[in-house]
Design goal:
globular; alpha/beta
Length: about 180
């Protein structure tokens, strides 16, 4: 197992170097999105409308942060169970999504789309949202404000610790 310090802009170029079990300390722009936001993003795609962020090269964090205290950049921000987004993920990956961050296993369809598109699925530590928030330096709601914690937010990660759970070679920590 290897360790990498990566910027989100490097994921597509470096995906082939990453293998299930590797540790990645990720910095850069990441977008939160959960069930309700994914449903709206799919509706925008179906209608040919502009998305809240460009999918090509993007990293999505399946998270719904708690309200932000005045003295912090964000509230608690731990991962959501990723399987809930499996119905949406293959389409997003086919449109250029570079990586997803969450927790738990993914469907065969998502695993196939990861391999097909040279993407990666990272897992964050569940139950440690307050600790994870210390690696997030900014948080801005950019879409679907009415969804509250499930709105789409632009986050800036700073050396956020992740594990490669599913790589673009077909390696899968949940199957080994």
């Amino acid at each position: 197992m290897k360790e990498f310090q990566l910027h989100t802009s490097e994921i597509k170029a470096c995906a082939k170097e990453l293998h299930a079990g590797d540790t990645v300390y990720l910095s850069g722009t990441v977008y939160t999105s959960r069930d309700a936001a994914h449903k709206r993003i799919m509706a925008l795609l179906d209608a040919g409308e502009t998305l809240p962020y460009a999918l090509d090269g993007a990293v999505v964090y399946y998270a719904g942060p708690t309200p932000t205290p005045e003295h912090l950049a964000i509230g608690s921000c731990g991962p959501t169970t990723s399987g809930r987004m499996d119905v949406y993920a293959p389409r997003m990956l086919d449109l250029g999504l570079a990586a997803m961050v969450g927790k738990g296993p993914r469907s065969k369809e998502v695993c196939d789309a990861i391999v097909r598109n040279g993407a990666v699925y990272f897992c964050a530590v569940g139950g440690a949202g307050a600790l994870a928030s210390k690696c997030i330096t900014s948080c801005e709601v950019i879409a679907f404000d009415d969804l509250g914690c499930e709105s789409v937010k632009r986050l800036e990660f700073s050396v956020f610790p992740l594990t490669v759970a599913i790589d673009c070679h077909g390696g899968n920590l949940f199957q080994t």
